[in-house]
Amino acid sequence: MYVKKENVSQINFLASSRFQAFTTQVEQTGVTTDENGRKIVPAGTVYPANDATAKGILLHDVDVTNGSQAGSLIVEGYVIAERLPTAPTPEAKAAMQEIKYR
Question: Which of 1, 72, 92, 98 could form a disulfide with 54 if both were Cys (CB 3.0 to 4.6 A apart)?
Fold first, then answer.
């Protein structure tokens, strides 16, 4: 595990404090490097893809710069769709049946 002190800000996209999340392995495949040389999958990302394969929404940012990392995946709850980094596609919404949008 790599630890580094940084200041980060994260938009609250949860519409309720009640949600169900499970641990998932977040892969670095397809993640672009940011201006700091890091590969960060942002909180609110529909994972693993914003299509019919969607399983949930990442609760926190996941740094995959040094390889795959564990992340928390929301599979049930209420979210504010307008605050997500990318709006879920209709296919992703259909795949994530237990996630509701406000």
Answer: 92
CA 17 – CA 20 distance, rounded (Å):
10
pLDDT digits (tens, 9 = 90+) for 31-89: 999 998 999 999 999 999 999 999 999 999 999 999 999 999 999 999 999 999 999 99
* Residue in 60, 58, 55 with CA at minimum distance from that of residue 98: 55
Q: What's the CA gap between 89 and 95, in Å, rounded?
A: 10
The residue to which tokens 């996941």 are assigned: 62
The pTM of the full predicted model, rounded to 2 decimals, is: 0.90
pLDDT of amino acid 9: 74
**Beta-carbon contacts of residue 64 (< 8 Å; ≥ 6 apart):** 26, 27, 28, 31, 39, 40, 41
54-to-45, 50, 74 alpha-carbon distances in Å:
10, 6, 11
What pLDDT score does 87 carry?
Answer: 96
Of 38, 32, 56, 36, the residue nearest 46 (C-alpha) = 56
